[in-house]
Amino acid sequence: MRPLKIVVLAKQVPDTRHVGPDAMKPDGTVNRGKLSTIFNPDDLHAMELALNIKDRVPGTTVTLLTMGPPKAADIIREGYYRGVDNGVMISDRRFGGADTLATSYTLVKGIQKLAPFDLILGGRQAIDGDTAQVGPQCANKLKIPQVTYVEEILEISENEIIAKRRLEKGVETVSSPFPCLMTVHGSSPVCRSRHAKNVMKYKYARTATELRSADEMLKSLHEKRPYLTIPEWKVEDIEANIEKIGLAGSPTKVKSVENIILTANEAKFLNESDADIELMIKELIEHHTIG
Ligand SMILES: Cc1cc2nc3c(=O)[nH]c(=O)nc-3n(C[C@H](O)[C@H](O)[C@H](O)COP(=O)(O)OP(=O)(O)OC[C@H]3O[C@@H](n4cnc5c(N)ncnc54)[C@H](O)[C@@H]3O)c2cc1C
Question: What does CATH list as the number for 5-244?
Answer without folding.
Answer: 3.40.50.620
